[in-house]
Design goal:
Elements lengths: L2 E2 L2 H17 L6 E7 L3 H16 L3 E7 L5 H13 L5 E4 L9 H7 L11 H9 L7 H12 L8 E5 L6 H10 L3 E5 L6 H6 L3 E4 L17 E4 L3 E2 L5 E2 L4 H4 L5 E2 L6 H21 L1
Parallel strand pairs: 1-11, 2-3, 2-4, 5-6, 5-7, 7-8, 8-11
Antiparallel strand pairs: 9-10
Helix pairs in contact: 1-10, 2-10, 6-7, 6-10
Bound molecules: NADPH dihydro-nicotinamide-adenine-dinucleotide phosphate and 5,10-Methenyltetrahydrofolate.
Family: Belongs to the tetrahydrofolate dehydrogenase/cyclohydrolase family.
Catalytic activity: (6R)-5,10-methylene-5,6,7,8-tetrahydrofolate + NADP(+) = (6R)-5,10-methenyltetrahydrofolate + NADPH; (6R)-5,10-methenyltetrahydrofolate + H2O = (6R)-10-formyltetrahydrofolate + H(+)
Keywords: Amino-acid biosynthesis, Histidine biosynthesis, Hydrolase, Methionine biosynthesis, Multifunctional enzyme, NADP, One-carbon metabolism, Oxidoreductase, Purine biosynthesis
Length: about 280
């Protein structure tokens, strides 16, 4: 029987554990989400983060800046949050309006408060095997692999996608866990062939059902990071779920897989950043 990795339930349990740890502190870890403009998808995510954080006992707020905010104004806002002792975690919601360079905003966040783990300092630490803040989505995927009791050392892991925010850090975490890691992308010569070798298959592409059932090795663990909004409003992953299900040992659904774990790991990172910074 294929194990369906219920990210919603696992994230709920993790948030409960975090709430218990937060309740034992003498302060509320502070999280600020900075949102610029009106990207429609961001509205839902930002509200979900805010609700999860508040429920778990964090001091959470959203700083919503208008679409016309200049890059310089955003950097000033970030500098103020860096200097605020009550703020432990800062997340600049992506995408940003086109007139703002995302890499400038990301690099402006104090690495000690960078709960997205996107700052080059944290990315460099991860690539060097040093402790630092780790991006939430790959971190959530690692929790799900633990839930699947994946035997990582020596396993062949294939990560499809090489973005700064998902694919690359995912590959680094699997490498740190002693997997043999392949990173595939849009220029990969034989994507189906690469996927078929995977004991652990991570899809982070952003193309609905690109990965077909017969690309999945019998007994593989499949983590589908993709979140694709279809014209009918429903969400689909990057993996053809119904086809892959009978072949996989374990698989994540979309929705209800990696997405909720991302939010739980944001809280996990914020708690860790708070404890590290406040001692
Ligand atoms: N569950 C969650 O919490 C989150 C989900 N997501 C979702 O994950 C998906 C990926 O996000 P993100 O990493 O930001 O996306 P990006 O668009 O930044 O990266 C996509 C990657 O997929 C590769 N790719 C695109 N088309 C193909 C193809 N036909 N064959 C092989 N590789 C391909 C690209 O290759 P190349 O580099 O060559 O262009 C690129 O490396 C999206 O659906 C996004 O919505 C994202 C963040 C969080
Ligand atoms: N600075 C920054 N950090 C991010 O981590 C970040 C970001 N910007 N921009 C957008 C992406 C996307 N992302 C998701 C988070 C939760 C769900 C999630 O909870 N998904 C639910 C369903 C949500 C729904 O129904 O729309 C699920 O998959 O079950 C999805 C996607 C974080 N991102």
């Amino acid at each position: 029987m294929t194990q369906i990795l219920d990210g919603k339930a696992i994230a709920e349990r993790l948030r409960g554990q975090l709430a218990t740890r937060v309740a034992a502190l003498s302060f509320k870890p502070g999280l600020v989400v900075v949102r610029v403009g009106e990207d429609p998808a961001s509205g839902v995510y930002v509200r979900n983060k805010d609700r999860a954080a508040t429920q778990a006992g964090f001091a959470s707020r959203t700083r919503h800046l208008p679409e016309e905010t200049t890059e310089a104004q955003l950097l000033e806002e970030i500098a103020a949050l860096n200097a605020d002792p009550e703020v432990d975690g800062i997340l600049v919601q992506l995408p940003l309006p086109k007139h703002i360079r995302a890499e400038k905003a990301i690099a402006a966040v104090d690495p000690a408060k960078d709960v997205d783990g996107f700052h080059p300092i944290n990315a460099g630490k991860l690539a060097s095997g040093l402790p630092g803040l780790v991006p939430c989505t790959p971190r959530g995927a690692m929790h799900l692999l633990a839930e699947a009791k994946a035997k990582l050392p020596g396993a062949r892991a294939v990560v499809v996608g090489r973005s700064q925010i998902v694919g690359r850090p995912m590959a680094q975490l699997l490498l740190a866990a002693d997997c043999t890691v392949t990173i595939a992308h849009s220029r990969t010569a034989d994507l189906a062939g690469e996927c078929r070798r995977a004991d652990i298959l991570i899809a982070a592409v952003g193309r609905p059902e690109l990965i077909r059932g017969d690309w999945v090795r019998e007994g593989a663990i499949v983590i589908d990071v993709g979140i694709n909004r279809m014209p009918d409003g429903k969400l689909k992953g990057d993996v053809a779920y119904a086809e892959a299900l009978p072949r996989a040992a374990a698989i994540t659904p979309v929705p209800g897989g990696v997405g909720p774990m991302t939010i739980a790991c944001l809280l996990e990172n914020t708690l860790e950043a708070a404890i590290a910074r406040r001692g």
